[in-house]
Amino acid sequence: MDVKEFIVIRCPKCGKWTYAKTTQKSRFCSRCEKQFKIDPIKVVYAETHKQAQMMVKVRNEQEMYQSPLFKAKKR
Question: How many domains does the chain have?
């Protein structure tokens, strides 16, 4: 499959990763409730909905585990 149907993007306000269809021009962040325009230069392309979901999950988990707040709670 050569067609990239989804994009993975990051909210410019809170940093949460999310995804959208490649045809979308803006996105609403479910964490901080900010509506933002999608910058096509700052996206990662995914071929399927499932692939986009997995990419978002992995990126958000990686950042959560690297957070100083997570490290402070872990001790």
Answer: 1
> Would you put residue 39 in left (φ > 0), alpha (ψ -120 to 50) or beta?
beta
Does any domain span residue 60?
A: yes
Tell me if the pTM is above 0.70: yes
Identify whether 1 is part of a domain. no
What is the DSSP track for 17-38? EEEEETT-SEEE-TTT--EEE-
Q: What does the pLDDT look like over 51-75, one tens digit per residue?
A: 999 999 999 999 888 877 766 665 5
